[in-house]
Fold each of these.
Amino acid sequence: MTVTHPGGGAYGDQSSVVTGDAVVLDLRPAGFATRMVALAFDLVLQLILLYLANQVALRVGADLDTAVMAAVVVGSMVLVVVGYPTAFETLTRGRSLGKLVMGLRVVGTDGSPEQFRQALARGLCAAVEIWAVWGVVALISSMINRDGRRIGDFVAGTLVVEERSGRKPKEAVPMPPQLAEWAAAAEMSALTPDTVAMARQYVLRYSELTEQARRDMGERIAGLVSASVSPPPPEGTPPVGYLAAVLAERRRREEEKAARRQEQRGGPPHSRQE
């Protein structure tokens, strides 16, 4: 997996994360200053938590053995320094409180949502590159790397990106006419946003893929989608047509829901892209 940097253009220094299957995901790496502000927010919060944890430990453990007391203090530090970012980023799919405030998110270098193992790797590395050496290692790494990645990002295979980057409007996926009737009656409420995003990238980048990638990825993604959509499409439907029909029908239903909500509020309806 590699990260390429198209030169300039209408979207500035926006990067494209390219997966091993050559699917391009448009992501904008977070700026150095923005990341530092988010990190500072998290560090202040963690310091407050450490102070509170130590105060509780001192009061509760006043009569405890010195060794037990030391173990309690060390355990509290591990929970705050490693446990806080790991748990928070896992539960929120890549956002700590600081990143949430600054509109940032941690994703895999292939554009996938951050997983627990990646959050844990970043948390463990942060204990060394941020806490143990006063952030010097993380600061240097973020400054010299074009995408602002620290050591923990390299170990975990992650990238911090902006969620409020003013991207261009998403392209609409057209409905294959021969599948419109089937799609209108299909049940697809169980589809997850991650699966939809994956299917959408495949359909929109279909012409950029090799024949092998089209076949392999199409079968794999269609298999994931079919687990949440029923009934199956007409026999002989190619994966790209099947996925396009699901995406187009899902968008149509969401636009209808949005229009109904606007009508109930007394405002003009507006369209919504998936």
Note: The first helix runs from residue 32 to 60.
Amino acid sequence: MNLMELNVQCFRAINDLGKQYPELNPAFYAIAEYTVYALALCALLYWFTRDSQNRMMVICATATFVMAEVLGKLAGTLHTNNQPFAELANVNQLVQKAVDNSFPSDHTILFFSFCVSFWLFQRKTGILWMLLAVCVGLSRIWVGVHYPADVLVGALISIGSALTVFLLLPRFAFVHSLLSFYEKMESAILPVKPRSKGL
């Protein structure tokens, strides 16, 4: 069995679950399509906690995503495949999408970039972020828009990018200088109110 056949078999094993358990389709559709908004909201909430560590985490996550996206586009020039629903028959397709190169998965790159970065900064709660990233990757297969290889390669690119950024970016003095400058400007515009002491 070659890798493409294994890729298709793994896709069938996951995607066909939507036919066997149709009651789960709405949940996987929601995960595949709408969790991106929750991720964006959480990143904003982390940023506006006004905690420097949280802000460095968001900066690293954003840099990781940019780096992983560039690497993903390069990977897409080395291998091309359309979405499973465009190449295979009887796919449980829950999401309407234009046919193009689905390798690697952009959704997976986005979620693993942010979730792995969050995990690296917050090990105790980070496992929940990692579970979310895995669920999103799985959901993209379930709804019929990506092969397992699309998701796996997207995840590996993002994990490698996150580790690289986490180890290097916080060491650059100019990043801390820019963050400090931003925080001074923010405090001038939106000063933090002192907490009132209880009686």
Note: The two ends are 74 Å apart (CA to CA).
